[in-house]
Amino acid sequence: xxxxxxxxxxxxxxxxxLLCLPPFYLDAFWLRIGLFSLAAAIGATGLSLLSGTxxxxxxxxxxxxxxxxxxxxxxxGDPGPGLPTALAALLAVLLAGAAxxxxxxxxxxxxxxxxxxxxxALVFLGHHLLLTADSVTGxxxxxxxxxxxxxxxxxxxxxxxxxxxxxxxxxxxxxxxLALALFALTWFTARGLLRSRPGRxxxxxxxxxxxxxxxxxDVARYRSAAFVVSSMYAGLAxxxxxxxxxxxxxDYFSLALSVDYLAMIVIGGLGTVAGATxxxxxxxxxxxxxxxxxxxxxxxxxxxxxxxxxxxxxxxxYLYGAVVVVILxxxxxxxxxxxxxxxxxxxxxxxxxxxxTAPAVPPAPAARPKEHTx
Length: 374
Description:
Strand order of the largest sheet: 1-6
Largest sheet: 2 strands, antiparallel
Structural class: mainly alpha
Shape: globular
Number of strands: 6
Mean pLDDT: 84
Order of helices and strands: HHHHHHHEEEEEHHHHEHHHH
């Protein structure tokens, strides 16, 4: 194996080691930002598969996040069946997939802005159900989320006795590694899907439905399947968000959350896992950072201070809204495409001047002179 082929595995291994270090050096605030960002990256990956790869516009992502979050809370809680939490988490993801399956006939027959409007109805319907189904959702005040436990190990801070290398591991530290494992699973499964035959069929479907149908792609079936897969990713993200928040309330799963997820995949780059991750980190971390450092930012009022100015959450929305406009104007393929072009330009600069990277073409043999016959 050449040195160039070793670069990528070594880089992946180094990144994995680097991502395992934050619980030993960062406080709970930064770990919470990381938890929310990893959960958002999982959900954004599902939406990127649906909108970026399959070309299906969806404004109902918040609904499937709510199904995952409240499904886990009800299945593992009391009132509720009180199932083992690991089983409840798995069933919540399947429940989100089943909700997507119930809606998939619509997704299989409608596309574009019409599908966007249809999924928009899911958000309003879901929010109404969350407010009125008190016995399941707890109504306006929401419900506390039971901590996850796997094999007797609880992802909670109630047990202060666990220390690793002298660092006490509370809820944030434990959930960090859970979120990292789930994100790694999402990353590799999504990339495998994109490189597989179904992924190529979805890309063909996005580019031209007529061309995909001519090549033998079942348009309605693949559209429906993409919607179900995206719903399951959203359900998994909802479970992780519920564990990180420790309490779920209906107002969080609103239309604004669906718009945030659309902003994530547009900023990061449609149809790419790395782009969805970059956009999720940007959109999720920005309002939290602006809230913490609001007193140092101009024109931004700290929460509860009573000062004249824009709240940090609104300021963050204005800022990444402007970023969306800039991305659409100057980098339609998002941060991922921009990074790819920068790498290509740096690679060209490292190539010595006058060196041709194309394979050399042997010169044509010289023509033999014709023999003169008398």
